[in-house]
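User: Teach me something about this protein's shape.
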Amino acid sequence: MISDLKILIIDDDEDDFFITSQYLEDIEAFNVNCSWSYNINDAQQKLASNAYDIYFLDYRLGARTGLELLKEAIGRGCYKPVILLTGKGTVEIDKQAVENGAYDYLVKSDLTTEKLERCLRYAYERYKSFKVINDNEKKYRLIFENALSFIFTCDPLLHFSAANPASEYLLGYMPDELIGKSFLNLIDDSDKHNFRKLIVEKKNIYNFNIRLLTKHGEIKTGNLSLNYFEEDSETAYWQGIIYDETMRVQAEQAKLQSEKLEATYRLVRTLAHEIRNPLTNIGLSLEGFLEKGIKDEQKPYVDIIKRGADRINSIITELLQSSKAIEIRPELVDLNALLREVVSIAQDRIDLKKIHTDISLLNFPVVRTLDKEKFKIAILNLVVNAVEAMESGKGQLTVSLSQNLEHTTILIKDNGSGIKEDDLKMLFEPYFTTKKTGMGLGLVSTLNIIKSHKAHIEVDSKQGMGTTFRVIFPN
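Assistant: First, the predicted structure itself:
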């Protein structure tokens, strides 16, 4: 308890001020310094200033009431204890006083030094508790507002009730846009089943890897912790935090792709060396065989050997080309124009299979330094693969370009046959293909070109539902 108290008595009756101040100054527990305010405008300013430790406010102030003045003062930022005084007490005024923020309510005719001392102790102790809570709220509010992780609360049915500004960074939604929206609508279909099961059981969730759909249709990877609180049916709620794992996952994928390419390069160089040596010997032997002459019935077999050797040599050459470091001839390229060219080149295939297209580009130039022709080949390969994966007359091809502060993304999406989960892991390995015809070098070459342009590629696919490729440039 402090030893000195600055008290302001707001009362339009000087006699009442004198009586009240005398009682207060007779309190021996601490020194009281009383001041008087009898003017409404002066009282409003002094209440808003919080310059006094405690305020005594008369209920009757001419044409105004103390309750009206109290409401205004709290609205203008008054947080110091205010005690309402009245000439005659009623239960209704008492109730209104507490509801409007008064710390206590006293009847003037009942005032005594002892009662006022008790009132001051109570008010000041309550104020100290309030200050601790208020300071903590401000501290945690700052953490909430400035956290890089997405922090939120939801009602029991998982509709957002509060969200911090990190929602815009992670999901593209402003906090106000999320209020009332279902959290389940932001979860990728691949995670919804497992997530619903956990929610129905109302179990706390820790470090749950989750895939989220952003406002712009992108997929972000997050690490979710979600806790359920239930004191009663009216105050039950979910509180959650999501750490953005997108960058870490992208880095891991980029590292894996680089390691896979490097392993492919080493394998290809070794195979080329080991195969070409005996292939050269076969060629030399075949030439010697032909110089000595062969019988007519032997000629078809020799031709088979020669075609086979040429085919092996062609495959090795193509494999070496796919694994060779790409030489870039850079120029400034607008990605909008490049994607239009790619779709135009693939248009005959698209029309032949009667595929519906959704091309979504930006209305401003998105310029990148690229080897235009090589990069066009890489994107065209993805578009052609998408077209070939779809059923004639039922296909939906989406090609879009999007940009935010972190990255620029080219998206190519189909609703075709999709890729098995096990096959996804092998997608960029040489000679792996899901097509009935094809050598399995197209995506290896595509990955090589994209990596050479300091970009990375992501793929999401579900069997029977389609595949989405994203080529992502860091900004």
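Now, about its shape. The chain has a mean pLDDT of 82. The chain has four domains: 4-144, 147-244, 249-323, 331-474. If you'd like, I can walk through any region in more detail.
User: That's plenty for now, thanks!
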